[in-house]
Protein backbone atom coordinates (compact mmCIF):
# COMPACT_ATOMS: atom_id res chain seq x y z
CA UNK A 1 0.00 0.00 0.00
CA UNK A 2 1.36 3.42 -0.97
CA UNK A 3 2.13 5.65 2.00
CA UNK A 4 -0.51 8.41 1.89
CA UNK A 5 1.21 11.68 1.00
CA UNK A 6 -0.47 13.76 3.68
CA UNK A 7 -0.32 11.17 6.48
CA UNK A 8 2.03 11.75 9.42
CA UNK A 9 3.07 9.53 12.32
CA UNK A 10 2.45 11.45 15.57
CA UNK A 11 2.35 10.67 19.29
CA UNK A 12 -1.43 10.51 18.92
CA UNK A 13 -1.36 8.02 16.03
CA UNK A 14 -1.46 8.66 12.32
CA UNK A 15 -2.82 12.10 11.45
CA UNK A 16 -3.48 13.96 8.20
CA UNK A 17 -2.62 17.46 7.06
CA UNK A 18 -4.36 19.53 4.39
CA UNK A 19 -1.22 20.00 2.27
CA UNK A 20 2.46 19.13 2.19
CA UNK A 21 3.29 22.41 3.95
CA UNK A 22 0.66 22.33 6.71
CA UNK A 23 0.66 20.64 10.11
CA UNK A 24 -1.35 17.49 10.89
CA UNK A 25 -4.89 18.37 11.91
CA UNK A 26 -7.10 15.29 12.20
CA UNK A 27 -6.68 11.59 12.99
CA UNK A 28 -6.81 8.92 10.33
CA UNK A 29 -9.76 6.57 10.03
CA UNK A 30 -7.67 3.62 11.22
CA UNK A 31 -6.34 5.61 14.19
CA UNK A 32 -9.90 6.37 15.27
CA UNK A 33 -10.94 2.72 14.93
CA UNK A 34 -7.84 1.75 16.90
CA UNK A 35 -9.27 3.50 19.97
CA UNK A 36 -11.43 0.42 20.55
CA UNK A 37 -9.51 -1.81 22.99
CA UNK A 38 -8.69 -5.33 21.86
CA UNK A 39 -7.34 -8.05 24.14
CA UNK A 40 -4.66 -9.92 22.19
CA UNK A 41 -2.88 -11.44 25.17
CA UNK A 42 -4.19 -14.93 24.46
CA UNK A 43 -3.10 -14.76 20.82
CA UNK A 44 0.31 -13.38 21.77
CA UNK A 45 0.78 -16.07 24.40
CA UNK A 46 -0.15 -18.79 21.93
CA UNK A 47 2.38 -17.55 19.37
CA UNK A 48 5.12 -17.29 22.00
CA UNK A 49 4.45 -20.80 23.31
CA UNK A 50 4.27 -22.28 19.82
CA UNK A 51 7.55 -20.70 18.80
CA UNK A 52 9.28 -21.87 21.97
CA UNK A 53 8.23 -25.51 21.72
CA UNK A 54 9.18 -25.58 18.02
CA UNK A 55 12.60 -24.02 18.58
CA UNK A 56 15.32 -26.56 17.67
CA UNK A 57 17.53 -25.14 20.43
CA UNK A 58 15.09 -26.03 23.22
CA UNK A 59 16.36 -29.56 23.84
CA UNK A 60 19.95 -28.41 24.21
CA UNK A 61 18.90 -25.56 26.50
CA UNK A 62 17.22 -27.81 29.07
CA UNK A 63 19.11 -27.50 32.36
CA UNK A 64 20.67 -24.15 31.45
CA UNK A 65 18.80 -21.22 33.00
CA UNK A 66 20.63 -18.64 30.87
CA UNK A 67 19.90 -20.45 27.58
CA UNK A 68 16.24 -20.96 28.52
CA UNK A 69 15.91 -17.26 29.33
CA UNK A 70 17.38 -16.41 25.93
CA UNK A 71 14.89 -18.67 24.16
CA UNK A 72 12.00 -17.32 26.24
CA UNK A 73 13.01 -13.73 25.49
CA UNK A 74 13.10 -14.49 21.77
CA UNK A 75 9.74 -16.29 21.88
CA UNK A 76 8.09 -13.43 23.79
CA UNK A 77 8.42 -11.18 20.73
CA UNK A 78 6.84 -13.73 18.36
CA UNK A 79 3.58 -11.77 18.16
CA UNK A 80 5.40 -8.57 17.22
CA UNK A 81 7.41 -10.31 14.51
CA UNK A 82 4.27 -12.00 13.15
CA UNK A 83 2.39 -8.68 13.13
CA UNK A 84 5.21 -6.84 11.37
CA UNK A 85 5.65 -9.59 8.77
CA UNK A 86 1.90 -9.61 8.09
CA UNK A 87 1.92 -5.82 7.72
CA UNK A 88 4.77 -5.95 5.18
CA UNK A 89 2.98 -8.70 3.24
CA UNK A 90 -0.21 -6.63 3.31
CA UNK A 91 1.67 -3.63 1.95
CA UNK A 92 3.02 -5.72 -0.95
CA UNK A 93 -0.42 -7.11 -1.82
CA UNK A 94 -2.07 -3.68 -1.54
CA UNK A 95 0.62 -2.18 -3.75
CA UNK A 96 -0.04 -4.81 -6.41
CA UNK A 97 -3.80 -4.18 -6.24
CA UNK A 98 -3.22 -0.43 -6.62
CA UNK A 99 -0.94 -0.93 -9.62
CA UNK A 100 -3.47 -3.18 -11.35
CA UNK A 101 -6.08 -0.44 -10.90
CA UNK A 102 -3.71 2.21 -12.26
CA UNK A 103 -2.96 0.00 -15.26
CA UNK A 104 -6.68 -0.36 -15.96
CA UNK A 105 -7.07 3.40 -15.71
CA UNK A 106 -4.44 3.83 -18.41
CA UNK A 107 -1.97 5.68 -16.20
CA UNK A 108 1.63 5.02 -15.19
CA UNK A 109 1.90 1.81 -13.19
CA UNK A 110 4.29 -0.77 -11.76
CA UNK A 111 2.05 -3.83 -11.98
CA UNK A 112 4.76 -6.12 -13.35
CA UNK A 113 7.39 -5.12 -10.81
CA UNK A 114 4.84 -5.29 -7.97
CA UNK A 115 4.00 -8.87 -8.99
CA UNK A 116 7.72 -9.68 -9.22
CA UNK A 117 8.19 -8.51 -5.61
CA UNK A 118 5.38 -10.81 -4.50
CA UNK A 119 7.01 -13.68 -6.37
CA UNK A 120 10.35 -12.98 -4.66
CA UNK A 121 8.62 -13.43 -1.31
CA UNK A 122 6.76 -16.58 -2.37
CA UNK A 123 3.47 -14.67 -2.45
CA UNK A 124 2.52 -14.80 -6.12
CA UNK A 125 -0.63 -16.76 -5.24
CA UNK A 126 -2.07 -13.57 -3.73
CA UNK A 127 -1.67 -11.86 -7.11
CA UNK A 128 -3.14 -14.87 -8.94
CA UNK A 129 -6.26 -14.91 -6.77
CA UNK A 130 -6.62 -11.14 -7.03
CA UNK A 131 -6.42 -11.26 -10.83
CA UNK A 132 -9.09 -13.97 -10.90
CA UNK A 133 -11.42 -11.86 -8.77
CA UNK A 134 -10.73 -8.75 -10.84
CA UNK A 135 -11.74 -10.53 -14.04
CA UNK A 136 -14.68 -12.46 -12.55
CA UNK A 137 -16.25 -9.30 -11.12
CA UNK A 138 -15.33 -7.22 -14.19
CA UNK A 139 -13.92 -4.46 -11.99
CA UNK A 140 -13.81 -1.08 -13.72
CA UNK A 141 -11.78 1.30 -11.56
CA UNK A 142 -12.72 4.93 -11.15
CA UNK A 143 -9.91 5.96 -8.76
CA UNK A 144 -7.29 4.23 -6.62
CA UNK A 145 -5.77 5.28 -3.29
CA UNK A 146 -8.08 8.25 -2.73
CA UNK A 147 -7.43 10.49 0.28
CA UNK A 148 -10.69 11.84 1.74
CA UNK A 149 -11.56 14.32 4.50
CA UNK A 150 -14.52 14.90 6.82
CA UNK A 151 -14.68 18.32 8.49
CA UNK A 152 -17.85 17.81 10.52
CA UNK A 153 -16.46 14.96 12.63
CA UNK A 154 -12.78 15.66 12.01
CA UNK A 155 -10.92 12.80 10.34
CA UNK A 156 -9.26 11.79 7.09
CA UNK A 157 -8.20 8.57 5.44
CA UNK A 158 -7.14 6.89 2.24
CA UNK A 159 -9.51 4.52 0.45
CA UNK A 160 -8.12 1.61 -1.54
CA UNK A 161 -10.40 1.76 -4.55
CA UNK A 162 -13.55 3.23 -6.04
CA UNK A 163 -14.79 1.15 -8.95
CA UNK A 164 -17.85 0.29 -10.96
CA UNK A 165 -19.03 -3.31 -10.68
CA UNK A 166 -22.21 -4.49 -12.41
CA UNK A 167 -23.32 -0.89 -12.90
CA UNK A 168 -22.88 0.05 -9.21
CA UNK A 169 -20.29 2.43 -7.82
CA UNK A 170 -18.41 0.59 -5.07
CA UNK A 171 -16.15 1.91 -2.34
CA UNK A 172 -13.71 -0.97 -1.75
CA UNK A 173 -11.27 -1.83 1.00
CA UNK A 174 -8.75 -4.65 0.55
CA UNK A 175 -7.62 -6.86 3.44
CA UNK A 176 -4.84 -9.43 3.12
CA UNK A 177 -5.76 -12.55 5.07
CA UNK A 178 -4.02 -15.75 6.07
CA UNK A 179 -5.60 -19.19 5.88
CA UNK A 180 -7.50 -21.06 8.58
CA UNK A 181 -7.15 -24.77 9.35
CA UNK A 182 -9.46 -25.64 6.46
CA UNK A 183 -7.30 -23.76 3.99
CA UNK A 184 -9.87 -20.99 3.59
CA UNK A 185 -9.38 -17.25 3.96
CA UNK A 186 -9.75 -16.12 7.57
CA UNK A 187 -12.91 -14.05 8.10
CA UNK A 188 -12.88 -10.27 8.04
CA UNK A 189 -13.29 -8.30 11.25
CA UNK A 190 -16.56 -6.36 11.41
CA UNK A 191 -14.58 -3.19 12.20
CA UNK A 192 -14.06 -2.92 8.44
CA UNK A 193 -17.65 -1.64 8.29
CA UNK A 194 -16.60 1.40 10.34
CA UNK A 195 -13.75 1.97 7.91
CA UNK A 196 -16.06 1.79 4.91
CA UNK A 197 -18.83 3.93 6.37
CA UNK A 198 -16.27 6.56 7.40
CA UNK A 199 -15.15 6.66 3.77
CA UNK A 200 -18.74 6.92 2.62
CA UNK A 201 -19.31 9.90 4.96
CA UNK A 202 -16.32 11.84 3.60
CA UNK A 203 -16.92 15.39 2.41
CA UNK A 204 -13.87 16.05 0.24
CA UNK A 205 -11.23 14.20 -1.75
CA UNK A 206 -7.66 15.28 -2.35
CA UNK A 207 -6.77 16.67 -5.78
CA UNK A 208 -3.30 18.21 -5.27
CA UNK A 209 -1.27 17.44 -2.14
CA UNK A 210 1.40 20.05 -2.84
CA UNK A 211 -1.05 22.92 -3.23
CA UNK A 212 -3.60 21.54 -0.78
CA UNK A 213 -6.42 21.48 -3.31
CA UNK A 214 -9.52 19.45 -2.49
CA UNK A 215 -12.84 18.88 -4.23
CA UNK A 216 -16.25 17.61 -3.08
CA UNK A 217 -16.51 13.85 -2.49
CA UNK A 218 -19.13 12.44 -4.85
CA UNK A 219 -18.90 8.67 -4.23
CA UNK A 220 -20.56 8.46 -0.87
CA UNK A 221 -24.19 7.96 -0.01
CA UNK A 222 -25.26 5.86 -3.01
CA UNK A 223 -22.18 3.65 -3.20
CA UNK A 224 -22.07 -0.03 -2.35
CA UNK A 225 -19.53 -0.61 0.42
CA UNK A 226 -17.38 -3.67 -0.21
CA UNK A 227 -14.57 -5.33 1.74
CA UNK A 228 -12.40 -7.79 -0.17
CA UNK A 229 -10.39 -10.43 1.70
CA UNK A 230 -7.38 -11.50 -0.40
CA UNK A 231 -5.68 -14.77 0.50
CA UNK A 232 -3.47 -17.30 -1.26
CA UNK A 233 -6.39 -19.70 -1.70
CA UNK A 234 -9.31 -17.41 -2.53
CA UNK A 235 -10.68 -13.90 -2.62
CA UNK A 236 -13.81 -13.33 -0.56
CA UNK A 237 -15.75 -10.11 -1.26
CA UNK A 238 -18.44 -9.04 1.19
CA UNK A 239 -20.85 -6.13 1.35
CA UNK A 240 -21.36 -3.94 4.40
CA UNK A 241 -25.00 -4.55 5.29
CA UNK A 242 -27.08 -1.36 4.85
CA UNK A 243 -28.78 -2.05 8.19
CA UNK A 244 -25.37 -2.00 9.93
CA UNK A 245 -24.16 1.31 8.54
CA UNK A 246 -25.90 3.67 10.97
CA UNK A 247 -24.85 1.93 14.24
CA UNK A 248 -21.29 1.47 12.97
CA UNK A 249 -21.16 5.15 12.00
CA UNK A 250 -22.33 6.09 15.50
CA UNK A 251 -19.65 3.84 16.98
CA UNK A 252 -17.01 5.47 14.79
CA UNK A 253 -18.21 8.91 15.92
CA UNK A 254 -17.93 7.84 19.58
CA UNK A 255 -14.39 6.50 19.06
CA UNK A 256 -13.48 9.83 17.45
CA UNK A 257 -14.55 11.54 20.69
CA UNK A 258 -12.41 9.08 22.66
CA UNK A 259 -9.40 10.03 20.53
CA UNK A 260 -10.07 13.73 21.05
CA UNK A 261 -10.38 13.52 24.82
CA UNK A 262 -7.35 11.25 25.08
CA UNK A 263 -5.34 13.86 23.20
CA UNK A 264 -6.65 16.68 25.38
CA UNK A 265 -5.84 14.91 28.63
CA UNK A 266 -2.33 14.15 27.37
CA UNK A 267 -1.77 17.78 26.37
CA UNK A 268 -3.03 18.96 29.78
CA UNK A 269 0.11 17.56 31.38
CA UNK A 270 0.44 15.38 34.48
CA UNK A 271 -2.95 14.64 36.01
CA UNK A 272 -1.56 14.01 39.51
CA UNK A 273 0.75 16.15 41.62
CA UNK A 274 2.25 15.87 45.13
CA UNK A 275 0.07 17.12 47.98
CA UNK A 276 1.92 18.64 51.00
CA UNK A 277 0.54 18.23 54.50
CA UNK A 278 -1.63 21.07 55.86
CA UNK A 279 -0.14 23.64 58.28
CA UNK A 280 -0.02 22.44 61.90
CA UNK A 281 -2.85 23.73 64.15
CA UNK A 282 -2.01 26.79 66.33
CA UNK A 283 -2.26 24.78 69.59
CA UNK A 284 0.34 22.28 68.36
CA UNK A 285 2.72 25.07 67.35
CA UNK A 286 2.38 26.76 70.72
CA UNK A 287 3.15 23.49 72.52
CA UNK A 288 6.53 23.22 70.79
CA UNK A 289 7.19 26.96 70.79
CA UNK A 290 7.05 27.26 66.99
CA UNK A 291 6.11 30.66 65.51
CA UNK A 292 3.00 30.89 63.35
CA UNK A 293 3.89 30.79 59.65
CA UNK A 294 3.26 33.93 57.66
CA UNK A 295 -0.13 33.91 56.07
CA UNK A 296 -1.19 30.80 57.97
CA UNK A 297 -4.79 29.90 57.51
CA UNK A 298 -7.05 26.90 57.59
CA UNK A 299 -5.73 23.46 56.53
CA UNK A 300 -7.66 23.69 53.29
CA UNK A 301 -5.56 26.69 52.26
CA UNK A 302 -2.77 24.25 51.35
CA UNK A 303 -4.82 23.07 48.40
CA UNK A 304 -5.53 25.83 45.85
CA UNK A 305 -8.99 25.70 44.36
CA UNK A 306 -9.15 24.21 40.87
CA UNK A 307 -11.90 25.09 38.45
CA UNK A 308 -12.46 22.34 35.88
CA UNK A 309 -12.22 23.50 32.29
CA UNK A 310 -14.64 21.95 29.88
The gist of it:
Residues 282-297 have a biased composition (Low complexity). The protein is α+β, with helices and mostly antiparallel strands.
Question: Overall 3D geometry?
Answer: globular
Distance between the termini: 40 Å
Strand order within the widest beta sheet: 8-7-4-5-6-9-10
- Tally of extended strands? 10
How many DSSP H or I helices? 10
Give the SSE order as H and E letters: EEEHHHHHHHEEEHEEEEHH
Using only C-alpha atoms, the radius of gyration works out to 27 Å
Structure report:
The protein is an alpha+beta fold and 310 residues long. It has a domain at 7-39 and 139-267. It is 41% helix and 20% strand. It has helices at residues 29-33, 41-54, 58-61, 65-76, 78-104, 111-120, 124-136, 191-200, 242-267, 282-288; strands spanning 7-10, 13-16, 26-27, 140-150, 155-165, 168-176, 204-208, 213-216, 224-230, 235-239. The strands form 2 sheets. The chain has a 7-stranded mixed β-sheet, with helices on both faces. A 3-stranded antiparallel β-sheet has the order 1-2-3. Strand 1 and strand 2 form a beta hairpin.
Amino acid sequence: MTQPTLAHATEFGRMYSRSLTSAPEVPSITTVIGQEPKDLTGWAGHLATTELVQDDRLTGAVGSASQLKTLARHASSAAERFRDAAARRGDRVHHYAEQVALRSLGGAHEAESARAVLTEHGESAFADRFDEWWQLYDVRPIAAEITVWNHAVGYAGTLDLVAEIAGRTCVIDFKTKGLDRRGRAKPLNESVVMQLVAGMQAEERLVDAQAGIWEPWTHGKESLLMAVAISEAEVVPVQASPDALKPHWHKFWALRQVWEHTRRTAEAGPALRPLPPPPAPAAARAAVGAPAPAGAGSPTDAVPPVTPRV
